[in-house]
Amino acid sequence: MKKGSIEEAIRQPNFKSEYQKLAVNIFYTSAWLGNRHRDLFKSFDLTPPQFNILRILRGQKGQPLSVNALIDRMIDKSSNASRIVDKLVEKKLVERTTCPNDRRQVEVRITLEGNELLSQLDPFIDSMDNTFASLTEQEAKTLNTLLDKLRQ
Amino acid sequence: MKKGSIEEAIRQPNFKSEYQKLAVNIFYTSAWLGNRHRDLFKSFDLTPPQFNILRILRGQKGQPLSVNALIDRMIDKSSNASRIVDKLVEKKLVERTTCPNDRRQVEVRITLEGNELLSQLDPFIDSMDNTFASLTEQEAKTLNTLLDKLRQ
DNA sequence: CTACATTATATGTACCTACATATATTTGCT
DNA sequence: AGCAAATATATGTAGGTACATATAATGTAG
Fold it and tell me: Which residues contact B79 (CB under 8 A, 6 or more apart)?
């Protein structure tokens, strides 16, 4: 079993097919990467989905987003955005106000405090991306292309 | 934004780098694939980690595994194997007995019922793997190689 | 042989996801 | 206008993960 391979990671030397191995490899790699992210966010008292929402809101440059619009942009669409926003409101990182035009909707907006927290995180996120230094940019591009193709 | 791309999936046209896009793509693809698996297992009243443990135990061909040995072989190592085994015991799909040589350990073993359930699932799992029909075997191999390399 | 560290598992808590259902508001139909 | 369908969000519950801590059994140093 090659060092660093998925076979070694889960002590499973024989997969039925290259496709089955790929499924396991995707789950395993996602968990591996997610754990690194989680460790980073932890020192800022954020969880990955909380960070995801904060970063989406920052991208809005002050404009609010509804809960539905947040879900639309989230990595894990089955996240319960409503309750994650709850936590962020408690920490005063976002504000929630009822939309005046459509009172079913809420407008979620990042606060100054939220923006400052993200600014502190930025350099760490950037260097986290260099986690991938073992891949060339061309290899990263190939991975992106093939992952998109897989989901077709 | 290309159809089926990660950019489209999370409505994010600009990534800082190919590496940052790759991180998001891995998380998104893992969730996408995981949801398909979950849907399949659901009709058999199993969750993905429950299935993972059952399949590991089947691979033992009757030999038991300790909880630690299970974690070692699981895709998500931070799973709480102890509590997942609880659920499987309740459903009589596995048995748990104290190890006579080392009474700290428990021996977990798949039951006949557990094996039968997996047999019923087998054909569905096989056809699920063909979810990847959009990739050639060579492309799957490339993905596996690059994912292993990424984690180095 | 006793005291202490180590190991294997279990449990408590906070947060998250999955799914079903509830509540409030708006839209559309007649 | 009046009422049903659609929409946006919230909430209850079960299962799961992350992390700290507890409990029990074993190993080990002196």
Answer: B49, B52, B71
Look up residue A1 and give its two tokens: 């079993």
Beta bridge partners of B147: none
Yes or no, beta carbons of B33 and A23 under 8 Å apart = yes
What residues in A contact B75, CB-CB < 8 Å? 10, 24, 27-28, 31
Contact A133, B136 (CB under 8 A): no
Collapse the DSSP code of A74 into the 3-class scheme (helix H, G, I; strand E, B; otherwise coil) and give the result.
Answer: coil
Query: Are A74 and B18 inside 8 Å of each other by CB?
Result: no
User: CB A27 to CB B30 under 8 A?
Assistant: yes
Alpha-helix residue ranges (DSSP H) falling in B43-136? 48-58, 67-73, 81-90, 112-129
Is residue B76 within 8 Å of B86, Cβ to Cβ?
no
For A79, half-sphere exposure in the C-beta direction (CA atoms, 13 angstrom radius) is 26
Q: In a structure prediction context, what are the per-residue pLDDT tens digits for chain A, which is 152 residues long?
A: 888 899 999 999 889 899 999 999 999 999 999 999 999 999 999 999 999 999 999 999 889 999 999 999 999 988 899 999 999 999 999 999 999 999 999 999 999 999 999 999 999 988 887 777 789 999 999 999 999 999 98
Closest CA–CA distance from residue A27 to any residue of chain B (Å): 5
Q: Contact A95/A137 with Cβ under 8 angstroms?
A: no
**Residue A149: which of B34, B74, B134 has the nearest Cβ?**
B134
pTM above 0.85, yes or no: yes
Q: Of chain A residues 82-101, which have a CB less than 8 A from chain B? A: none
